[in-house]
Amino acid sequence: MDGRARDEVLLTPLECASRIGLTIRALRLYEQQGLISPRRTAKQWRLHGRDEIARLNEILALKSLGLSLREISKLLRGHSTDLEQTLALQREALADTKSRAERGLRVIEALRAKIRNGAVASIDDLMRLAKETKMTDPAKDTVAWRRYEQMRPRTEVAINKALYDDYVGAYEFVNGPLAVVSQRDGQLLYRIIGQSDLEIYPESETEFFMKILPVQLTFIRDEDGAVRSLIHHQNGSESRVVRTDFDYVRASEQELHRRIKEKTPQAESEAALLRVLGELVRRQPNLDRMSEGLSVLVEEQKDFVQAELEKAGALTSLSFKGVSQEGHDIYEAEFERTTMEWGLFLTPRGNIEALYFRSVLV
Fold first, then answer.
1. What is the separation of C-alpha 67 from the centre of its chain, rounded to a whole number of angstroms?
2. N or C: which end of the chain has fewer CB within 10 A?
3. Residue 26 and residue 21: Cα distance in Å, rounded?
């Protein structure tokens, strides 16, 4: 017996429930669902140890996102507790709650000051108050648990590789990039245009995953059995990707390689960057003009980005500097009080697929 086993504290159901803030009935229900497996004494009394407490934290974190017990059971069945992922999920939920509370307090104080000065609260004031003091956001909760699920370990299974022929082809994201599924030497490969081929591994006949990135693909068969679309799962988003003409994708990829080689910007990239900078300053980014994955990140980080732009001051000049190896157009943005490098990449439809910035030391 190792030291950890000797030192472990075991709790009765009553002690466990009272210290965590649950009921004994809840513990029994979780046990019936197969979510926890407390050990038994010789007299069949239940004892809860570290593993059960860790799993209870995982259950409570998912319940806080609005998942039903049935959904949690399906999500966790067959998986051991990943404490690091549980902590990340809890941290994200608490950080989001803190951010919402701080925004709500700022709105309340501003409105109180307005009323003390004799002004009347407008309809816009009251609508903003209702929005910013609402402490639940189902959309963000959905993103959080999807991200959690996508980060879980996956198990490769053996399938008939003749099925790979059904999946090979060119695809296009709605509001997003282009992608290619191919096969080579018995491997099924997937790439976003401008990136490298990455092998995807089956966890069922239609569900695949990457081993080096938390990305999964689900191929969708129509009523006639043909695969005409897939779902790309990444970073909390689930993006619909439909088949498209391969020549169109190949021409787009060739144009990308030409731009990288010749350091030529995309035709609309400067105008798109100026537009999105203005939207971010107003904290009103047009998410419909972005890929789904990028829109999730921008929505999460818009407060931070706006604060950085406010510190930078007004934009005084914008100059093109080149094209990265990934195809991002790179611009140097001069502001009143700082200099930043901004990079972006537009899809063939003109939507923003990638966007980043960093400070430049001068």
1. 17
2. N
3. 10
